[in-house]
Amino acid sequence: VAKRGAEDSEVDPSHDSELSSGDEDIVQKKSYSTSVVWRWFGYLKSDVEQIKPTCKVCRRMVPSKTGNTTNLFNHLKKYHPSDYTESVKMRAESGQLVSLSQSRLSTSAAASSGPAGTGGAAAQPKQQSIISSFSAVAPYEQNSKRSKSITKALSFCIAEDMMPLNTVEKEGFKYLIKVLDQRYEIPGRKYFSQTALPQLYDERREKLEMELKDVSFFATTADLWSSRSSEPYLSLTIHYMDKEWTLQSTCLQTAYFPEDHTAEIISRGLEDALESWNLSKDRQVCITTDNGANIVKAVALQGWTRLQCFGHRLHSAIGGSMKDKRIERAVGVSKKLVSAFSYSWKKKKALAAAQDELKLPKHKLITESPTRWRVASCNDCKNSGAGEGHCKGFVR
């Protein structure tokens, strides 16, 4: 093996100086290089000109003149002996211990003594093996800037679209993330529930609190409701004009409310909610609620101005009109119609065929919801046009 050429001239490895930030990504060398040392080195993403090579193992910046890799090898030899041993083996396998001048000489000699292109063809597999060694992409560190950015975006997606936390553990979702960025390793649901989502909430809350400090007056909306599992909650929404005179509405909280829903307890819960957001009661111009006796009394105990919910009043008015005997009969017929089709797939199939025959829109029959008058209204209107003649036969 020939002596090392200019590329491997001895330089003191103590030239290692700066220690780069652990948050910034290290990217590959832009210009092509066959030196195996670049498997352990790269450049910080912010180093656009790629002046200071950075060790991927310890993130130290190693001074190196353009094209000279001696300091890089010496750094491995001093700080990472096992990696240096591996680099020596790789150089021996790829023939990089041959000096640059001898390499050129042997290449030209092979070209003159053999068929054209023979030397190049023989060297090509070696170059491919070196290139393939660079193609192995290491995953992002969890604390890297890129990894944090993707995790934060996923947290926002889960919160904004109210996705279940187990979404991040589904194979299809994992495959999608790998296709988008194969270096990103998605954390488990526990990380999102205990770390990522609470961090997102804290950031959003801090931003909203700063915005609400500049609001002179505001209105609120409060409601008591139960989840599908019958767990009680108290929600409070704030409405205000921002600096650009744009109406903003933001839900401040949806708090678990297992206590008895007495007026006194509800009143205290509303007051605590405002205090937790540093909102003065004097800045609240009014609060909108439904007509529940307990929440009406709760607002009265605070001495706040209350507005009745228009939707609730409209629902009550229409609910009263539905008690008319003529309307009750029409609704009863519609319910009977829906019931006839709900438990028979044959009738559903026949209804679809009748709609095709009569060239009618393919509406599905909908069921009335007692707490939503609009559903009953749409139920009667749509069901009447779902194939009237065909439906009458089934009702009979």
From TrEMBL:
Residues 1-18 have a biased composition (Basic and acidic residues). Residues 32-87 form the BED-type domain. The keyword Zinc-finger applies. Residues 1-24 are annotated as: Disordered. Keywords: Metal-binding, Transcription, Transcription regulation, Zinc, Zinc-finger. Transmembrane segments: none annotated. Pfam families: zf-BED. PANTHER family: ZINC FINGER BED DOMAIN-CONTAINING PROTEIN 1-LIKE, ZINC FINGER BED DOMAIN-CONTAINING PROTEIN 4. This is Zinc finger BED domain-containing protein 1-like. It comes from Nothobranchius furzeri.
